[in-house]
Amino acid sequence: MKVWDVLRLGISYVILAVSAVIAVFPIYYIVITSLSDIPTIASISVNSLIPQPRGLSLEAYKGILFENPFFLWLRNSLILAGSTVAVTILLAFLSGVALSRLNVPGKRALMVTVYVLTFFPMTVTVLPLYLMFATLHLINTYYGLILAYSSGTSIYGAYLVKLFVDSIPREYEEAAMIDGLSRFGAFMRILLPLSKPVLAFLGLLAFMGAYTDYAMANVFITSSNMWTLTLGMWYLSFINRSTLYNVFAAFAVLMGIPIMAVFLAFQRYLTRMYTMSGVKG
């Protein structure tokens, strides 16, 4: 191995190590802060920003889990996020396949419209959605929030699925149809399995968007029985009237566990998508 190759390999390892430290440090900071008491956190000075694992305690976790309706908030968040994922994947896949494979009237204009809509954040739709849902009596219901979340994510998802399906050769479906499958059967048995990577990526985005949302939940939810985790965190900050960093850090750790579980469940499909995105031709 040449000297330049060794040097380049060493530099690559150094860059990876530094990147890993930068990525892991916030997680370490949050976890240690969640296990520390207020005096320990207050003792951290500007010259020692890295918290030391001393005087560890589970009091913050006990307060969140047993003195507040945390599991009710978690249930509401998971119902909304899981339903949003299901609706988003269904609408995005059907719409994306139709835009890619079917001769839809006004297809070009529709694609331009979908592309333009992806630039608008979901928050700009809060007021019109609220007025519409109030008329339909969907305020303070799961259905209203699921429709609000999935409508925004499905637009981006349809465009993403369309681009992904365009990269799949049509010969696969034609061969399946020659073997006796209908067009719909070819879509479901050929395109759907091949589209799992992009659907997994879209599902992760939909889950995180609904699970971590505060703006829409704060507008559309009026009953405490419907509160999500983000509203629960706001509630804790409101009633305490103080800066309890350990409580907020513990809440963030608990809230991040389902996100990590979903990411690990979709990891192999996400890895496949990243691999496919780097292959040309």
From TrEMBL:
- Tell me the first and last residues of the signal peptide: none
Q: Which domain of life is it from?
A: Archaea
What name is this protein filed under? Sugar transport system permease protein
Tell me which InterPro entries the record gives: BP-dep_ABC_trans_perm, MetI-like, MetI-like_sf
- How does the protein's chain sit in the membrane according to the entry? Multi-pass membrane protein
**A Gene Ontology cellular-component term:** plasma membrane
SUPFAM superfamilies annotated for this entry? MetI-like
A Pfam family the protein falls into: BPD_transp_1
Write out the annotated subcellular location.
Cell membrane
Q: Report if keyword Oxidoreductase is assigned.
A: no
